[in-house]
UniProtKB/TrEMBL annotation:
Aminoacyl-tRNA synthetase class I anticodon-binding domain mapped to chain residues: 327-465
Reactions mediated catalytically: tRNA(Glu) + L-glutamate + ATP = L-glutamyl-tRNA(Glu) + AMP + diphosphate
Organism: Paracoccus lutimaris
This protein's name: Glutamate--tRNA ligase
Principal location class: cytoplasm
GO biological process: glutamyl-tRNA aminoacylation
Span(s) of short sequence motif 'KMSKS' region: 241-245
Domain of life per record: Bacteria
Gene Ontology MF, one: tRNA binding
CDD domains per record: GluRS_core (cd00808)
Presence of keyword Ion transport: no
Gene: gltX
Length: 468
């Protein structure tokens, strides 16, 4: 199944809601396949359903793709805006005998089907107008139907599913152009894919039957058939089709939960595709490795524990600049105010320590709480227990000891140890009131990391606030 043409893939969502995680994976597969081969990745908005398509949904899809880091070539194509071209092709098929005018009314079609059901026959509509003499056609309203082959087979040569055969007696003369002159989705898709030069159609396997019907349009027009790759859908952890009962299904929900885009790309790529035993990889590796042969035939299962593992790996591997950019995107996605210059300045020195432990961005921000607050520090109940009169005396002593220190880790640690030794206390007992004073929490990064990050003036001010 080779194709010598430059690779062109496309993602073609319907703008009727948010970007589903399954759609995001489909987009990713198309993006990886094209980018790994120096090809083009195109975006088409299938907005022919005017009743359900909304500009807000279109924008939500575009935002989702941007957040995921998938760039597309050229401007997004509106399927609706191509309706004149779709009609033109339908009339061309009418002229060359590959399609015909059908004057059957909805009532007549339903009557045909009811009779077929009663007689135990196929309810596939057989139009009486298929072979009518053109001279006998009335002037009334009509649809244009494909004159599909009635015998033989249509074979979908699928890069994932293998050869899938459909008996032509199972496929109807589908409507190409409705009586009001608007194209059907099935017809518009083929015209658009041909006109956009799409060479590889990678999409969900719920479109497999559509492929057989669409191949008949390609054949009728004498157009080159693209490579099809129908990928299994994503299931929940229980093996059932993914739905809201399993938790998050929209890509925006994963952004709001604080999974970095790089981690989502890695995880979604591995969801139904494999490259040996490789679980953790970057974009360059994914582009180099991704191929259609690595896609499995069985539905993939969403696994939140694995996603957390992948997320933790990517957070740990990120540069500080990339991580700050991810944090900014996360805060924007959740409607949280952006970090101030001061917060970034306090946070940056401890990022290396924090990102080694955090599995998600909110978990990292939770540990970074000390850098995100301002005086007076609010002390939570657990931390407040560490601030008795003895502890406040330790804070007073430590404040005096480090006031003129060089503010290096060695000097700060030495001062704390000396105070502990003089009181017969271990460093852990000294650290507890320090955590409370600096962060208002009992679980924090290293107290010395916090002191170094906050700097002399802020540290001393927070200690003095609690020394009393």
């Amino acid at each position: 199944m080779t194709d010598s043409r430059p690779v062109v893939t496309r993602f073609a969502p319907s703008p009727t809601g948010y970007l589903h995680i399954g759609g995001a994976r489909t987009a990713l597969f198309n993006w990886l396949y094209a980018r790994g081969r120096g090809g083009k990745f195109l975006l088409r908005i299938e907005d022919t359903d005017r009743a359900r398509s909304t500009p807000e949904a279109t924008e939500a899809i575009l935002q989702g793709l941007r957040w995921l880091g998938l760039d597309w070539d050229g401007e997004p194509v509106s399927q609706f805006e191509g309706r004149a071209r779709h009609a033109e092709v339908a009339r061309e098929m009418l002229a060359n005998g590959a399609a015909y005018k059908c004057f059957s009314t909805p009532e007549e079609i339903e009557e045909f089907r009811e009779k077929a059901r009663a007689e135990g026959r196929s309810t596939l509509f057989l139009s009486p107008w298929r072979d009518a003499d053109p001279a006998s056609l009335p002037d009334g309203s009509y649809v244009i139907r494909l004159k599909a082959p009635r015998t033989g087979q249509t074979i979908v040569h699928d890069a994932v599913q293998g050869d899938v055969t459909f008996g032509n007696e199972q496929l109807d003369d589908m409507v190409l152009l409705r009586s009001d002159g608007t194209p059907t989705y099935m017809h518009a898709v083929v015209v658009d894919d041909h006109d956009m030069g799409v060479t590889h159609i990678i999409r969900g396997d719920d479109h497999l039957t559509n492929a057989a019907r669409q191949i008949q349009i390609y054949d009728a027009m004498g157009w080159e058939i693209p490579v099809f790759a129908h990928i299994p859908l994503i299931h929940g952890p229980d093996g059932k089709k993914l739905s809201k009962r399993h938790g998050a299904v929209g890509l925006h929900e994963y952004a709001a939960m604080g999974y970095p885009a790089a981690a989502m790309r890695n995880y979604l790529a591995r969801l139904g595709w494999s490259h040996g035993d490789d679980e953790l990889f970057d974009d360059a590796q994914a582009m180099a490795w991704f191929d259609l042969g690595g896609i499995g035939k069985a539905p993939a299962r969403l696994d939140f524990k694995k996603l957390e593992h992948v997320s933790g790996h990517h957070i740990a591997q990120m540069s500080d600049a990339a991580l700050l950019a991810e944090l900014a995107a996360y805060l924007e996605a959740t409607g949280t105010p952006a970090l101030s210059e001061q917060q970034v300045a306090w946070l940056s020195p401890v990022l290396t320590a924090l990102k080694a432990k955090a599995k998600t961005l909110p978990a990292l921000l939770e540990q970074a709480h000390f850098a995100l607050i301002s005086r007076p520090v609010q002390i939570d109940e657990k931390a407040a227990a560490a601030l008795d009169s003895v502890s406040r005396g330790i804070l007073q002593e430590l404040t005096a000891a480090v006031q003129h220190a060089s503010w290096s880790r060695d000097e700060l640690e030495t001062a704390a140890k000396q105070i502990g030794e003089s009181r017969g206390l271990g460093l852990g007992k000294i650290a507890a009131p320090l955590r409370a004073a600096l962060a208002g929490r009992s679980s924090t990064p290293s107290v010395f990391d916090m002191m170094l990050a906050l700097g002399r003036d802020e540290t001393l001010a927070r200690l003095q606030d609690q020394a009393g």
